[in-house]
Prior knowledge:
With 395 residues, the protein is of the alpha+beta class. The protein has helices at residues 89-96, 152-161, 170-178, 256-265, 274-300, 317-324, 335-339, and strands at 3-7, 28-32, 37-41, 44-49, 54-59, 62-65, 70-76, 81-84, 124-126, 131-139, 142-149, 164-166, 182-188, 194-195, 201-204, 208-213, 218-219, 231-240, 244-246, 308-314, 353-362, 370-374, 376-377, 380-381. Strands 9-10-11-13-7-2-1-12 form an eight-stranded mixed beta sheet, covered by helices on one side. Strands 8-16-5-4-18-21-20 form a seven-stranded mixed beta sheet, with no helix packed on it.
Amino acid sequence: MRRKLICLTLLGGAAVLLTRLPVDAACCYFSAVGQDVNQPAQKAFLTWDPQEQVESFTVQPKFEGNAKDFGMVVPTPSRPRLFEMPRDFFKELAVFTILRPMPLDKYKSFNRFRATGAFGGGVAADKKSKVEVLEAGVVGTLDYKIVKASEAQDLYDWLKENHYSYAGDQASLGYYIGKKWYFTVMKIDPMQQKRRPDGSYTGEVSPTRFTFASPKLIYPLRITQISVTDQTEALFYIQAPHKVDMTGNWSYQLSWPTMWRQAIGFAVPEKVTPQEKAWQGVVDSSLPDLQQRLNAENTRDGSWQPARLEWARKLNAQDMGMLDGTVKFDRQAEPAAVEQLKVLRGHLKQGQWVTKLRKVFRKGEMTQDIELVPATLAGKKDEMEYAYILPTSPP
């Protein structure tokens, strides 16, 4: 059966039609010609060990459509190891990163100031196509193959010889082949998922973690540009020894400092901590430059949006206690969801930062991959936590 390879999106939003589908920043889907597969939602959890130079990312695509079999392709900078993750992992991660209630005794007259939206087996070689199939196996409910090629044309031909018709351009494959990246192909069986009254399928793929060596914390974005009509939204949870940010004008610093500074302006002076007072000086001196960069981006593209910081905290013993139930959960959430926070045990680590970032990428921006770096402002480490609702937090 001839197949077409369709890139999909990293989303946190609602379902969309295939013809207008934004694209995923980590993977592509392939399905039989004439059989649609939509991906209304996908999330990513990244971890980073800078000393060992080991990265991992976990993805859980959600799909809707009429394809009876389909799969996805994930590029990584080195050969990955695959692990199955708990099915409710992302649901519980969202619960854990709920902002705590606003400390009402710290802020004054805040009701008037509500701001709006600021991824072991044998080795084989396909000699005809010059594509190496390095590994084949099963992770969770997914069959996978890890492949590598030295030329974009070879990989393009291999896809065709294996009955997949790549729906993109060879330059996009060449971008990653030129960097000597690997490609993981995973087969998905929708028959194991729910079937809707119209006969189509809906469900979420088992979360899968990809662990691999990498000289830096990076996430694929460039491969998806060819399938983006206008823009795509990415949601990241990143665990690292430090607070994390994107580089250049993708930084959350173009939106966060203004919101944070306004919130501090509403605070009762006696309640402002020494750390906050020190950081206020860094922010105040940086705002003119940040505003200038923000204005330049908005002039270039009126629909451009800066990245948004949604949660950031260095995990402590109290946070770990909330995962095993020995410490009371201090945010609003359903009791059943709080009970299931235990699925995060072993994955979230005490002493590590978890940073939650959201960014809407315009098609014209997607010319490179996403590099994640230690968060700084004006050359100073940004170690300000964002775990409580602020007077200026988006509703």
